[in-house]
Design brief:
alpha/beta
Length: about 160
């Protein structure tokens, strides 16, 4: 895919989000405390509008825990908007931080299958008891997503 295919690029500090016409986005530069509060709404809007089902992180040059929180928040936005989202080319630094933070399955997409199976099991148990409303297993990820809320509060 050529760089010309991307439109709506918005640079923020030393980080940027470029949204393509084909449902893909590229993040470049730094995903750190200094940049994430400004990158959050750019990515969130693209996700909500269905313009960023895949986010390529190959261009990320630096990251910290705020960058990891941003990725978790974007997953939360996608789930709330009922939009698909997956990450590609996750840099080693973010992979290591996600593993240490025990959110790698969430970031890598491995948790989606597990959560789907857990939702089916909970729904099956609830229906078996005759309840009209089933719980969801989404709350199992609430703790991981909750850590990202602090950057959402800082967004302009």
């Amino acid at each position: 895919m050529s760089e010309r295919a991307f439109r709506g690029a918005r640079a923020v500090g030393t980080g940027s989000v470029e949204v393509a016409e084909d449902g893909r986005a590229k993040v470049a530069g730094s995903l750190a405390f200094a940049t994430v509060s400004q990158l959050l709404p750019v990515g969130a809007n693209a996700i909500k509008e269905g313009r960023a089902a895949t986010i390529d992180l190959a261009g990320v040059t630096a990251s910290d825990s705020a960058g990891l929180a941003l990725l978790i928040e974007w997953l939360s936005v996608a789930r709330s908007a009922d939009q698909p989202l997956r990450y590609e080319n996750i840099p080693a630094q973010l992979r290591q931080l996600a593993r240490l933070s025990e959110v790698w399955p969430l970031i890598s997409g491995e948790a989606q299958v597990e959560v789907g199976a857990a939702n089916a099991e909970v729904a099956h148990r609830e229906v078996g008891r005759g309840d009209t409303q089933a719980e969801t297993a989404g709350s199992s990820n609430a703790e991981a997503v909750g850590g990202a809320e602090s950057i959402r509060d800082q967004a302009p």
